[in-house]
Amino acid sequence: MCATKSEPHNHNITYEGLLKGNKEWVAATLAEDPTFFDRLSAGQKPPVLWIGCSDSRVPANQITHTNPGDIFVHRNIANVVVHTDMNMLSVLDYAVNVLEVEHVIVCGHYGCGGVAAAMSNRQFGIIDNWLRNIKDTYRLHNDELDGIENEKKTYRQTGRAECNRRSL
Asked: Could you confirm whether 112 is annotated as catalytic?
């Protein structure tokens, strides 16, 4: 049940418009599958935990062509996974120990603004604290990372998601 809108981005999104869109989606979904919400409310048993970026251009279900309930999702800026993030650790613990997911995927994407900010010499405010781990990694390995010229060209020219997979 992925959105298939092909019109350009709507920058005039309103609260009322979001509620209207949700009501339209519910009605269309029920018309197509009257048991859809009953099945979802019965519980979830997704085989995958997807840790991805908060970037609005990479919604997990759409880029994997999966349905609601198929993957358990955690998102944050630049898909950072660190041992001090209680939110991410709680999601990981719940996914592994309660939902018993079989796979954990940390998914990056081309054109990530968080990664670009971390790799720059600029300061952006409170987000700098969040990106500290990426900044430190880049600082320690910048010669190697800056030497990947073809990767940078590809990075700029494509918009495809790239998955870094880790199985439990």
From this structure: yes
Q: Is 122 a catalytic residue?
A: no
Residue 136 annotated as catalytic:
no
C-alpha 162/C-alpha 111 separation (Å) is 11
The closest alpha carbon to 112, from 55, 60, 38, 68, belongs to 55
Token pair for 12: 């005039």
Q: Which segment of 47-51, 66-70, 77-81, 160-164 scores lowest on mean pLDDT? A: 160-164
Residue-level pLDDT at 5: 56
**Annotated catalytic residue within 65, 112, 139, 141:** 112
Query: Does the annotation count 53 as an active-site position?
Result: yes
Question: In this structure, are residues 62 and 15 in contact, taking their beta carbons and an 8 Å threshold?
Answer: no
- Least confident among 1-10, 11-20, 114-123, 132-141: 1-10
Q: How far apart are the first and last CA of the chain?
A: 29
- pTM score, whole prediction: 0.79
pLDDT value for 9: 67
